[in-house]
Specification:
This protein has 281 residues and is an alpha+beta fold. The protein contains eight helices and seven strands; from the N terminus they run αααβαββαββαααββ. α2 runs antiparallel to α3, α3 crosses α8 and α5 runs antiparallel to α8. The chain is globular, with a radius of gyration of 24 Å.
Length: 281
């Protein structure tokens, strides 16, 4: 009994010093110590993953900040040295980079507030079909520009949900933007809505794009996670939209999940929301 406990003590001290890769053997010493060892190893796994995610987040943040800051610095130096004129083109470039920085800061604040349940929702009973068609209409122009087909299948005409209309639109915009980002020209994205039992509605955003591995599916909703960092950066994603979307859906008492049959097989994001309560007659 003393030996496995000593191993656990040494391992705990190692973790306390910042080494999250240490593990302890489990089994052979009774169910209580085995359970403790399994719990320790699970904790170490999560701490190691959190540390890896933190490092990746800092790397991604540095990358996201580097380009606009560099562009602003170059133009500022040019203005000071009088080799760049303050004209419409200069104004446009600097405004775009400032907008990019502002959007990044707002996204980071938004995901933090959403995950900490600090977002106030303006809930109202909304018609599901109208919400879905409005979200599709808002995205249709960008889909047409890329040459990706956007379809909306028949939506139950009498279904209503209790949602914050603005936040619902934000979630759908994130899901449709994500689907478009990972679907090549000539592909298709389909929105399907259905009633599930008496208490919930389900909305699928299904694409014929890149698809995901099981490993990527396990982390897709984590902040700053990217299935392919280099390619996602080229596509303009900061890795925050899906995190915000899940937090907003959960704030509504719903759920957001993702499935995929694998790489190149497309993905399906499923949004579950509670049905609006029926008003007493």
């Amino acid at each position: 009994l003393r030996t496995p406990l000593q191993n656990l003590t040494r391992a705990a001290s190692t973790v306390a010093d910042g080494n999250y890769r240490v593990r302890v053997p489990a089994g052979g010493t009774g169910p209580e110590v085995t359970s403790l060892a399994n719990a320790f190893n699970t904790m170490a796994d999560r701490l190691e993953h959190t540390e890896d995610l933190r490092r990746q987040m800092l790397s991604d943040l540095a990358h996201e900040l580097r380009t606009p800051v560099s562009v602003l610095a170059v133009y500022l130096d040019g203005l000071e040295d009088e080799v760049v004129d303050w004209n419409l083109a200069t104004h446009t470039v600097m405004a775009e980079q400032l907008t990019r920085l502002t959007r990044l800061v707002e996204d980071i604040d938004e995901v933090s507030r959403a995950q900490e349940n600090r977002i106030n929702l303006d809930l109202a009973t909304e018609d599901l079909a109208e919400l879905v068609h409005a979200a599709a209409a808002a995205a249709r122009h960008t889909y047409a520009d890329k040459g990706v087909e956007l379809q909306v299948e028949a939506v139950p005409g009498t279904a209503c949900v209790l949602v914050d209309r603005h936040r619902f639109g934000q979630v759908m915009d994130n899901l449709l933007t994500n689907a478009l980002r990972h679907t090549p020209a000539g592909g298709r994205v389909t929105i399907r809505a259905r009633v599930q039992g008496k208490d919930a509605v389900m909305i699928d955003v299904a694409d014929t794009g890149d698809g995901m591995t099981k490993e990527h599916l396990a982390h897709i909703f984590e902040r700053f996670y990217r299935a392919d960092s280099a390619r996602d950066r080229d596509h303009g994603g900061a890795g925050i939209g899906l995190t915000i979307s899940r937090a907003l859906v959960e704030a509504h008492g719903g759920a957001l999940t993702a499935t995929s049959a694998g790489p190149t097989a497309g993905s399906v994001f499923t949004l579950r929301l509670p049905v609006a309560p029926t008003e007493p007659t």
